[in-house]
Amino acid sequence: FQGMQIYTLLLLSIGSIALAEDFYGLLGVAKDADDRTIRRAFKKLAVAKHPDKNPHNENAHSEFVKINRAYEVLKDEELRKKYDQYGEEGLKDDFQGGGQQYQSWQFYNENFGIYDEDQEITTLSRADFQKNVVDSGEIWFVNFYSTFCSHCHTLAPTWRKFAQAMEGVIRIGAVNCAEDPMLCQSQRVMGYPSLVLYPSGMFYQGQRDVEVMIDFAMKYVKAEILHLTKDNYVALTEEWKDYADKPWIVDFCDDTDRCLSPLNRRKLSAMLAGLVNVGTVKCVHGEADELCEVLGRTEGVVYYSAGNVDTESEKELSSLDPRELAAAALSYMPGVEKARPDDVKEMFDHEEAVGAGTVLYFVNAAADVPDEMKKLPILFPNIKINFAECSKLDGLCAKYLDPAKLPTAVLFKRNLGYDINYGKSSTARDVAAFIRESMVSPMVVLSADRLQREIESGHLWMVDHFAPWCPPCMKLMGELRRIHSTLEEGSEMVNLKIGTVDCVKYKEVCQRAGIQSYPTSLLHFAGKHYRSVGSHTAEQIVDFIDNSLHPSVVELTLQSFQELVANRAEDETWIVDFFAPWCGPCQQLAPEYQKVARGFADEEEEKLKFGSIDCQAHGHFCGQHGVRGYPTIRAYPHGGQVQHKDYPANMWRNADSISRWVYSLLPSLVVDMGNDFFTEVLPSSEPWLVDFYAPWCGHCVQFAPYFEQIAKALEGRVKLAKINCDAWPQVCSGAQIRAFPTIRFFIGTNGGKQDHFGMGIQSHHRDQIISIIEQQLQSRQIRDEL
């Protein structure tokens, strides 16, 4: 009967999600929409449907609240991830009543998304800042602003002009700190607008003037300008390999203005770095170099192919704009070669070394390959870059790719297999980022047949089941590709293999694996598998694998629960997680619960055990034990038959909060004190460490578990006490406590009483406090010996 109740609850839960209005549908965007697309869609709806503009529509407020709530969720990386995985059910813990507050119509019309229409400016968020900016290796100039900051709006026209002037030279970004405060805090941004240059993280302190900012940014741009003369041009263009293998853009400067300014020359060189040499020849009357006569020119800008700087090979360029010149140079350069259809088929069918170290850029037709893809062979000289025309591959693209999402880049690897870029592949920058990620990872696409073979091999495999339209899935792929770069040398995971299964293309495979939400990863090893639901960081994935191979949480059955928990030793405490596999909040809790268990295991808390029970498999048992909802975390304290205690419903289900609750249940080495502080601590010859705290103080609550750890580390050498200053105000007043928590050390007296103040500890970091106390103990020992 209990199992039937759970099944009914599951059906009702699924039904409620299905009946709820889809947030993507409310905003009119696809599920894989990026942040800019979501903001632009919301702004359009906000301006059209705002109650200020619809005073005669009695439903205007309620309709706008729905739209606003949808935007509030989808704009936030964490909330969007929960919504994609669990629907609105997953938002209950942290979005109660959200979306009710909104701004005026004028705000949305004039102040909202101020850079969303500027193609030269990339709007950044927590979801992409690390990958696009910090890890890119490119120069970025980022404007951290706030929607509510008047100075930010004043700067906006200047920032747009600057972005237009520097397009293609450096990357220009913008971060709205009103919507992404955590990102701004992580970048040490304290005021708005703040302009920061990356990768150095340097804050710009100069005038906010276009020309001044250009001069500042250009100081950090690497640009080589070669001054050609009759004496050096043969060596540079034909003999010196660093230059001779590349084409040239040369401007000839006489007394007219038909040549590039020094600034534009440097911009052009930066845009074409590694691809095209940029040179200049002095042809001013009376000072002209003989090369002007040799090449028959005194003015203008000319393109020469590699090794052919002569009058017969010149192509005159009519523009002096660096962007137009760069585009013209790319158009003249040799294109990316086309792959033969038979070779493409061979690479997919056999996944053998025939395609190792090759990137295929799939397009519908040859005309769809942009000129900028010519940059890729220069950026990756050890990788073969080809394009493939899906229109001439007899259904091959439909078999392995999604023809609706062309262009698509595929990297064929030396470890036998291939990796598909399921994200954007429209620009050379997109493809280059994918290649850099993929080439250092063993990740490969798994077909149904290969998946079965690899699972049966017994090797350690992490298999990611995903849908290409799912944003958390795309985020997870990047993290999975990053795993091996985070591993320490000698780690048992260095041989970890990573595979991906597209659940849209291989629906039956995912159904057989019991995949109910995306992304879901299964760790396979030695005939067993372990499940991880949702998107996580590379470090969290490594922890998950480590926990799976060396579990800190015991998977309990009815029999083992009776033996280990019900009949536990007198001095043992058990913490048990009652969960159901289909339950979204249970899936969210799982990595946090594992983290708590691993943390206590590392501290060698031998008398504290962690377990879990699958209530879908043991529904009757969970019902008998009064488990009414999932997840339920329950403590079975030391003391034998002491009544169990449930984790409070009003506390967060994260590792820190759970750890604090667990510590409160354990035997404590910290003494609760009041007036006895004056009789126990001050006259004592033994050292005491005292925590003066207040129960309403958040930092005090967070510090309490660390104080317990300090007590354990110093056991036998130092006594520890805590004093509740709400309950004992006169004690804390006497010690002149003015902030919480305050940590004081009393070294011990050789007679008489110690000072009320003791020694103040100016740190709340566990290891630092232990180090300070040990130094004091050592100093005291030396004094005693003297």
Automatic annotation (TrEMBL):
<dbReference type="GO" id="GO:0005789">
    <property type="term" value="C:endoplasmic reticulum membrane"/>
</dbReference>
<dbReference type="InterPro" id="IPR018253">
    <property type="entry name" value="DnaJ_domain_CS"/>
</dbReference>
<dbReference type="InterPro" id="IPR013766">
    <property type="entry name" value="Thioredoxin_domain"/>
</dbReference>
<protein>
    <recommendedName>
        <fullName>DnaJ homolog subfamily C member 10</fullName>
    </recommendedName>
</protein>
<dbReference type="Pfam" id="PF00226">
    <property type="entry name" value="DnaJ"/>
</dbReference>
<dbReference type="InterPro" id="IPR035674">
    <property type="entry name" value="ERdj5_TRX_C"/>
</dbReference>
<comment type="function">
    <text>Plays an important role in regulating the size of autophagosomes during the formation process.</text>
</comment>
<dbReference type="GO" id="GO:0051787">
    <property type="term" value="F:misfolded protein binding"/>
</dbReference>
<dbReference type="GO" id="GO:0015035">
    <property type="term" value="F:protein-disulfide reductase activity"/>
</dbReference>
<dbReference type="GO" id="GO:0016671">
    <property type="term" value="F:oxidoreductase activity, acting on a sulfur group of donors, disulfide as acceptor"/>
</dbReference>
<dbReference type="InterPro" id="IPR052460">
    <property type="entry name" value="ER_disulfide_reductase"/>
</dbReference>
<dbReference type="GO" id="GO:0036498">
    <property type="term" value="P:IRE1-mediated unfolded protein response"/>
</dbReference>
<dbReference type="InterPro" id="IPR001623">
    <property type="entry name" value="DnaJ_domain"/>
</dbReference>
<dbReference type="Pfam" id="PF00085">
    <property type="entry name" value="Thioredoxin"/>
</dbReference>
<dbReference type="InterPro" id="IPR036249">
    <property type="entry name" value="Thioredoxin-like_sf"/>
</dbReference>
<dbReference type="InterPro" id="IPR017937">
    <property type="entry name" value="Thioredoxin_CS"/>
</dbReference>
<dbReference type="InterPro" id="IPR036869">
    <property type="entry name" value="J_dom_sf"/>
</dbReference>
<dbReference type="GO" id="GO:0006914">
    <property type="term" value="P:autophagy"/>
</dbReference>
<dbReference type="GO" id="GO:0005788">
    <property type="term" value="C:endoplasmic reticulum lumen"/>
</dbReference>
<keyword id="KW-0072">Autophagy</keyword>
